[in-house]
User: What shape does this take?
Amino acid sequence: MSSWFKSFTKRLKRIFFVRKTRDLSENERDTCERYGEQVIATMLAGGFRPDFDDLRSIYRDQRSRQHARDWLTERADYQSDITDG
Assistant: This one.
């Protein structure tokens, strides 16, 4: 397969198959990216009450927890895109 075709299909996949969350505020996105996937997933799945105010603001509100969950889905899609090469 040509390198052009691989590059083209990779761009198409990124456009159509990455489920990008749209409701996530800049503040929520910044917090999620600062702490990373493992911390956010542990907080959501494990039910751990965080000590930091920015994480607590996500944890307290059901809508923010859904946004953080959607952010994790987005990150997983990007990781899948990278590993599928």
